[in-house]
Amino acid sequence: MVHHSVGDESSSDAQYAGPLGRFATLSYGAGHMLNDITSACWFTYLLLFLTDIGLSPRNAAIVMLSGQVADGFTTIFVGELIDRFGHFKLWHAGGSFLVAVSFSSVFGSCLPCKVMGSNSPMLQTIGYSTFAAIFNVGWAVTQVSHMSMVNCITLNPTSRVALASCRNAFTMVANLSLYAVALCVFSLYNSKDTVDIKIQYRWIAYLSIFMGCCFVVLFLVGTKEPQLKLQIQCKKVSSISWTHWFKKKLYYQVALVYTLTRLVTNVSQALLAFYVTNELGMGQSSKALVPAIIYICSFLVSVILQEIRWSGWRLKAFFNAGAILWMFSGAGVSVLPDSMHNLMYILSIAIGAANALMTVTGISMESILVGENLNGCAFVYGSLSFVDKLSCGLALFVLESYQGSPDVMGNLGSNNPFLHDFGGAVWVISACFHDAVSY
């Protein structure tokens, strides 16, 4: 009887140590599509939408910051709950439902304004901030449950990177889908006033939610509830305390890498539309074309990364390559004159490749940090996401507040220091990567 039990454990370990199937990888990657497409809309169009309907850049930044703060604190709380109670798919389904029902209100009419019969800037800011917070709570629940599943699905390091790479590839698909939807809506429905603008973005939100929910269903049907965590808990009675991670040097190194990666990719995405139109003087189509080039390149690189056999030194090497590529791209953006704005399309190719290299390897470093300590994996992903969300929210708040100041507003045009600082900011942040991966 004892020998049979040992044999069962060995057989189970061998099963999880083997490579993961293609369908399992694809169905897992599809599980974050709703989050990805709504996140792309959040970072690309939220500030633009809020300023178009009359909010000041500072108030628009407050709305975004409220969502980022709610997201950050939720990741910590939910990560601890998932570690205690498990049921990844149940958490994922609940978070996806909250995202679906709240996102359209982020890009719609101000409900508190209708109830109170007032359209004051303060009431609008409070109203949009409330739904932004609700949306981000659901978004955080879905993200933490989905990301922490990686370590509980397989023990194979190459398969773990493949899962992260597939997830990133679907992120690129989500972004491209959003820009296709936005292009159709903007082309078919012309906006003449604030009401038309709200209708435009509401349709974008509805179509994004519908597409994302289709992929959520695919994930829930095609992905089995991970059993590896339950087996680890049976072997190890005591769970890992969250203070355990704060004693590890690797935790802080991975946190720095992951946070800087998200800071560069998210901040650049949020400010790109302003940069190409206001600073470089490119046409309105560039707001969709430049990001589309970035995400097409990121998608292709992500697909290639799935086919590589991974080790620790390869992760570091590819991450360094992406960081260096972003350094040169950021330097090019910071000095690019508006007379040579067509070079932005070439820089977009490099930025797309750099984004994929850093994102895939950065997320995979989290898996290395967790290793086989599955009882605390959700806390790791949640705590690192907490730092990521707060840093991005604060960075955008500072930059938007700076943009909305009287001195800057009176200096709009080709010499706008805010827009010049965009390229310099991403260059400085990218330059931190080389030291951040020295573990």
TrEMBL record:
UniProt keyword terms in alphabetical order? Membrane, Transmembrane, Transmembrane helix
Q: Using the record for this protein, list the coiled-coil segments as residue ranges, or answer none.
A: none
Molecular function (GO) terms for this protein are: symporter activity
GO biological process per UniProt: carbohydrate transport
* UniProt entry tagged with the keyword DNA-binding: no
Q: Which is one Pfam family of this protein?
A: MFS_2
Q: Which PANTHER family match?
A: MAJOR FACILITATOR SUPERFAMILY DOMAIN-CONTAINING PROTEIN (PTHR11328), MAJOR FACILITATOR SUPERFAMILY DOMAIN-CONTAINING PROTEIN 12 (PTHR11328:SF28)
Official protein name in the record: Major facilitator superfamily domain-containing protein 12-like
